[in-house]
Known about the structure:
The protein is mostly helical. The protein has helices at about 1-25, 35-55, 60-90. Helix 1 runs parallel beside helix 3. The chain is elongated, with a radius of gyration of 18 Å. The protein starts with a helix and ends in a 17-residue tail after the last helix.
Amino acid sequence: MAQMLEMIMLICFGISWPMNAYKAYKAHTARGTSLVFILMILFGYVCGITAKIVTGNINYVLIAYFLNVATVGVNLAIYFHNRALDQHNGQMPARRHHFHRPAAV
Length: 105
């Protein structure tokens, strides 16, 4: 029963990723897309796969994990493609600096 519920969860998540990829591809911009979010989702799936392997609980649910990793990977590729489009169109700076210089006293 637990494996079936895990599979249903993965299918529900998995359905959303192709729709997100299509939307991002059609948008032609990376604005509104979080790279950190995508990477955290990938990390979560990798942890899930690793847990299955380490515990020896290798079953059909792994297929859903790998399919989800593939679709999130497509989203990641689209993000970088759209980011390059944004840079080419001057909509996004080439590099973002996330630090603040101290104010002059």
